[in-house]
Amino acid sequence: xxxxxxxxxxxxxxxxxxxxxxxxxxxxxxxxxxxxxxxxxxxxxxxxxxxxxxxxxxxxxxxxxxxxxxxxxxxxxxxxxxxxxxxxxxxxxxxxxxxxxxxxxxxxxxxxxxxxxxxxxxxxxxxxxxxxxxxxxxxxxxxxxxxxxxxxxxxxxxxxxxxxxxxxxxxxxxxxxxxxxxxxxxxxxxxxxxxxxxxxxxxxxxxxxxxxxxxxxxxxxxxxxxxxxxxxxxxxxxxxxxxxxxxxxxxxxxxxxxxxxxxxxxxxxxxxxxxxxxxxxxxxxxxxxxxxxxxxxxxxxxxxxxxxxxxxxxxxxxxxxxxxxxxxxxxxxxxxxxxxxxxxxxxxxxxxxxxxxxxxxxxxxxxxxxxxxxxxxxxxxxxxxxxxxxxxxxxxxxxxxxxxxxxxxxxxxxxxxxxxxxxxxxxxxxxxxxxxxxxxxxxxxxxxxxxxxxxxxxxxxxxxxxxxxxxxxxxxxxxxxxxxxxxxxxxxxxxxxxxxxxxxxxxxxxxxxxxxxxxxxxxxxxxxxxxxxxxxxxxxxxxxxxxxxxxxxxxxxxxxxxxxxxxxxxxxxxxxxxxxxxxxxxxxxxxxxxxxxxxxxxxxxxxxxxxxxxxxxxxxxxxxxxxxxxxxxxxxxxxxxxxxxxxxxxxxxxxxxxxxxxxxxxxxxxxxxxxxxxxxxxxxxxxxxxxxxxxxxxxxxxxxxxxxxxxxxxxxxxxxxxxxxxxxxxxxxxxxxxxxxxxxxxxxxxxxxxxxxxxxxxxxxxxxxxxxxxxxxxxxxxxxxxxxxxxxxxxxxxxxxxxxxxxxxxxxxxxxxxxxxxxxxxxxxxxxxxxxxxxxxxxxxxxxxxxxxxxxxxxxxxxxxxxxxxxxxxxxxxxxxxxxxxxxxxxxxxxxxxxxxxxxxxxxxxxxxxxxxxxxxxxxxxxxxxxxxxxxxxxxxxxxxxxxxxxxxxxxxxxxxxxxxxxxxxxxxxxxxxxxxxxxxxxxxxxxxxxxxxxx
Length: 1000
Prior knowledge:
This protein is mainly alpha-helical. The protein is globular and about 105 Å long. The chain has a five-stranded parallel sheet with strand order 7-8-9-6-10, sandwiched between helices. Strands 3-5-4 form a three-stranded antiparallel sheet. Strands 1-2 form a two-stranded antiparallel ribbon. It is built from 46 helices and twelve strands. Helix 29 (670-680) packs across helix 30 (689-699).
């Protein structure tokens, strides 16, 4: 018999049928006995619990016991001395099973086995059907009932916390947040629940929300209990504040198969890298250069960054591709800065010990050589391992010729790969052991022992006998041909012939899918591949498409089985050698234009779908999704340009602009945008005025973008203003009509125009959008509007506008906009003397920039925080300046590094070390772009610092000159009078007064 007391009390026979227990008194009596199975409960205590008013006599209690025995059987309840007990195994009571499972689940969690812990704890919690001991709920005065209920409910909550912690360890942060919010609402003073919520929010990217949850918990504890948070919560808070965002650097790809036949070469290449700074693995396609580079990199002691270049078609994009592999942005959230990707790379790698692997350089050999030469010259601790079909011809390059496998290794590779598709296959002779080695050796010999060719051939043993395979290859390649003197060109022809042979064995549907898949430069999800490949025919998909055009997922699976596609990390990928052959077949089939168009439409629709999410709570998820398809965007733009589809190119650039700006990769499409502008001139296609403005902004993001900006700025401004006109008929906030489709352009337009001599038109355009219905647009308008009263000397008005903007961005869930506004609010708080408020706002902004991977902006914020701390806690300020400098170096951000050096220079002045201060100030000035508004404050403060250094040496003329130079610099970048300019830059009052007093 089984009993349940976690909810209404129930008893069931072994066959599951329920036992009728009678009225409330009998249920309550059975519940009291089942709380402690096999333990004697005194009759007097039972009577007191069941009737606290003393109305239950011993006879009445005996009567209830007798009726229970009649229902359950005489053996279930026993008389023992002056009391009764339930003679049941604790495992037969749900509460007993719950406690055991909860204990085992907690033990599994402590043993770092979260999978087992979740299984046990879910099983424990599923036993609950309602409140504990529900049939004792009316007995509010009984000590036993009350204590047992409290104990079980506490155990239940503890098990729930354990289960959630286990799920968090398994990555279930997103699903846990809603449940934890509900639980913390019911148990607001329970610190473990608060800690779990904070961790879930932080892991899900809600660093600011996590900090807010901590503050809410701390306030409740103080208000209701008069206590401080526990040591665990305090440590968690510090962890949030000290979070050090490491870039998501790309390491060598994980390998799905064993490495055969080159262990000696791995050791030799690794040894060569210890003495040479540039090693190039040279050999024909399919010989195994990439795999050897992966294994050699794995043997290296240094940190490794792996850059796959096969999908990159433009040499100009090479520095950006390396930045992306390092997990770094091309620009910060504030845009601008004057640094190109190559300069940023040089700064980021200047002091790093790193092995940089550049894989598949042959089609970009000239650009790869230039990049390697430049980086090796300025980054003394950098080493480069390249793979190419030809040398890079850089001074100091060491070459390693990658040759085909020897005969024994080739046979072993074929055998291992064949056994993966045909169980029990072996090339060894012997009774029942499989075929003799002859056919396998003949196959490998015909394939020149090239690893890729061997793997393609071995995959065919799924449906083909080895003798048949050897004969077919003989017919196709000629096995008898001598190969002893074949060079790289002959071996490349052998590989191409094997790829062609494998291709010809595909069905018509498989060939169609494979050739259309080649429009994906760096692989795709199965869903994307199906969508594009189905639509890639000349007639496209639809109900009228012939049966052969209907592509099913099984076709892609078949291509994986036949090694034409690989499935890694949830994405399908085609090896470059096979992709190049398939692309030729796509052209031959007359489908290049139609499939390229289908691919471009897919990219465009994805970008359009992403745009609103990129400004909302799904920002991080959609940034990653768009980043995984960045190569697709470049390919789609290349197709549009090659086909002269300039409307499509404009739409692609505009739809992707939010991703490009927020992710910090706008420079990667700058050359494409400039080419589009050259093609369309000053007259964009009708209805695409806003897209034209986006194109102008993106073209201006490149190293040579100033000319395009100067030429098209006025026209773009008029078109953008027309798109966002405030007439009632079109005041749709970007959701209808022909304008206002891309709200992010408003903010970027203002940022780009802030450094111009006439920024007022841009200011008027953006600030006029405060009446729009879309909250994000109103937030942008409020943010920009705040700079009006700030420049006019009305800090209270500016702060009101910034606060309104912060509320709007927070409500939308946009970390980008929120971080920008919090930075401004922190400056306002500092200006009115609220140092603690400024630090708190900066902390919140830091949490956001770190989740966005904006290291340069995080460094800037650390400098700001240090500026607030320097008077009261110079040691903490010094630590923040130093950490900011380290982050800026890692990000390759010269401007942020200069700001940190300026701060350290200020501390050197305080410490009475003018020589060190002068060195730091001068280094900072060398790194600052004097024309960028974001760096203007650092430039002014560094110049003022040099003035103070000169004064410390008694050199008043030099000091005055430095102060005057600072005043001129501020006015030149920001405009207006010197005091106005200095206030707009958010400088400390003492700096404002000192510099303004020396304005010319």
